[in-house]
Specification:
Elements: H1 5-28, H2 42-60, H3 66-95, H4 99-118, H5 122-134, H6 141-166
Helix pairs in contact: 1-2, 1-3, 2-3, 2-6, 3-6, 4-5
Length: 179
């Protein structure tokens, strides 16, 4: 077993939890997929990046440096987000291809309500709604690749921050030689 297999395990667990959260939102109300609620799926990922990083540090006998801590947490992030993003693509493209249409209608409704509350002119409202109506919410391979790329970049940023936190030595366990 290599030193990053624990990271893959935590990444798979985080990815599965994220998928379950999206499925719960989907089954409760598809409209909620158009709002802020799906962002909550990332909370368990952050938790498991921290928890998995600390657990790996303890089981490996501390990290040999920031790079090792970063990579451990980054593998958790990449594994989870690749599972999650791939599932979302399958959900929107194969399982229920009507989701993009429902989300588009909800975004139009939310934008109309927001523009009315802000007191925007009819021209501004129509301009905003035209942009939304012209946009295709159906996932494509190119959009999925863009989503993977953004997941990698955002995951790297969070991994660097979390890596700083989990890299601190555990006084109870000496650093193993040769790592």
């Amino acid at each position: 077993m290599n030193k990053y297999s624990m990271s893959i395990k935590y990444g798979v667990i985080a990815g599965i939890i994220m998928i379950v959260i999206i499925l719960l939102i989907y089954f409760v109300s598809i409209d909620k997929l158009a709002g802020f609620l799906p962002v909550l799926a990332y909370v368990p990922l952050i938790f498991l990046m921290i928890w998995g990083g600390i657990t790996a540090r303890r089981e490996l006998g501390n990290f040999s440096g920031f790079g090792h801590a970063f990579l451990t947490v980054f593998i958790i992030s990449i594994t989870a987000t690749m599972l999650f993003d791939t599932f979302n693509y399958v959900l929107y493209k194969a399982i229920d291809p009507e989701i993009p249409v429902i989300i588009k209608a909800k975004v139009i409704e939310n934008t109309t309500d927001m523009m009315e509350k802000l007191g925007a002119s009819d021209d501004k409202t129509e301009e905003a709604l035209k942009r939304i109506k012209d946009e295709d919410f159906t996932p494509t391979v190119i959009r999925e690749l863009e989503r993977y790329a953004s997941s990698i970049v955002i995951g790297a940023i969070f991994s660097a921050l979390i890596g700083l936190f989990v890299n601190r030595p555990d006084e109870r366990t000496p650093i193993k030689a040769g790592e």
